[in-house]
Amino acid sequence: MAHINENYLKLPGSYLFSEIARRTAAYVNSHPDAELIKLGIGDVTRPLAPAVTQAMHTAVDDLSRAESFYGYGPEQGYDFLRDPIAQFDFAARGVDICVDEIFVSDGAKSDCGNIGDILSVDNIVAVCDPVYPVYVDTNAMAGRAGDYSEDTQRWSDIVYMPTTAENGFCPELPEKDVDIIYLCSPNNPTGTVLNAHQLKKWVDYANEHEAIIMFDAAYERFVIEPDIPHSIYEIEGAKTCAIEFRSFSKTAGFTGARCGYTVVPKELIRGGTSLNTLWNRRQTTKFNGASYVIQRGAAAIYTPEGERQIEETLAYYRYNAHIIKEGLERAGFDVFGAVNSPYVWCKTPGQMGSWDFFNVLLEQANVITTPGAGFGPAGEGYIRLTAFGDTQDTEKAVMRIEALKL
Ligand code: PLP
User: Fold this and answer.
1) Do strands 343-347 and 382-386 pair parallel, antiparallel, or not at all (unpaired)?
2) What fold is seen in the domain 52-303?
3) Which helix (H) or strand (E) holds 325?
4) Can you say whether the dihedral through the CA atoms of 149, 151, 153, 155 is positive or negative?
5) Which of 193, 189, 195, 237 is nearest to 213 (CA)?
6) CA 43 to ligand 1: nearest atom
7) What is the mean pLDDT of residues 204-209?
8) pLDDT tens-digit map of 313-334
9) pLDDT of residue 76
10) Is the CB–ligand 1 distance for residue 260 below 6 Å?
């Protein structure tokens, strides 16, 4: 008899977005004329840059002719994409990352989840709370999380590090030794960032404890403040302790097209073994590379035209984030994030719970947000709003929330 991976049975249902959809549908049912505005979505809405689609069209034409046809490509990605990544994402910021430390993929979600393949089940995992759920669920699937408690909404073997306004959204070093630490900056869901000093604390911890930091920089392109690192490798010592995940999803609208990459430095050695070699082995065995057409499109981001075009879109989202932050602040809310991020993290008024505030905004302002409690217990008392919508809708939504005078 075949045996399933019973760790899957321990996973709680993905309650957050289904519950948002359920409450929204119930409201629309009883208020069919309501004009709802979605400020809850984490997906982009602006189209791909023309330079990107042009490159993709040309790539499709390449595939249509025998003389320019491409079949299986390198599992690690084509050099026409890895070269500009090394040059523009790293060398331009004073970081020396070589091409064979870069692994192109179909996005950061896959890599954040798959990286666990090269790690033992015995590792103690630490995550921030609130957190992007993929880090927790994928470790639970691999048997590294223990058991889930509905009461505490936590896994017994995961170390949770609250990141709230009280600690400036920078997790404290754990009291118990941990082996794998997930950090995300700019953060989903809080929209806050870790500065160089805060990251250095973690890099030193990881090197001292021979731990590994999984650094998720999916929102790196939103960083505008000059003293905020874009990559963990800007921190001295990070190459011996950190793996970094990048995504073109929010950078350049690739949520549907799918492309990202992971950096595994050659200096990262644990138990005498190179993690770069292990990840290469994993990828060449289980992955046949991201699509040629998509990689051509991603490479176009690094051309002067592509760069200018994606910056226009990023400016559009940044402006939305600014509108939300300013409007909520005018309305008297405590607001975090938004400056280096498309996410705005807003404290609920009084002692109101996340879901109650979600309901108030849905029913009284017809604005859909995401309750912070859905990202972990320490997200209770907050909601997340996103800047990925249409600017006019965003302005209208903010005006409606201000008018509530909560
Ligand atoms: N990491 C974080 C923190 C995210 O919020 C997301 C998407 O929402 C991802 C990774 C996934 O990125 P991708 O679309 O490249 O899989």
Assistant:
1) antiparallel
2) Aspartate Aminotransferase; domain 2 (3.40.640)
3) helix 304-330
4) negative
5) 237
6) 8
7) 98
8) 999 999 999 999 999 999 999 9
9) 98
10) yes
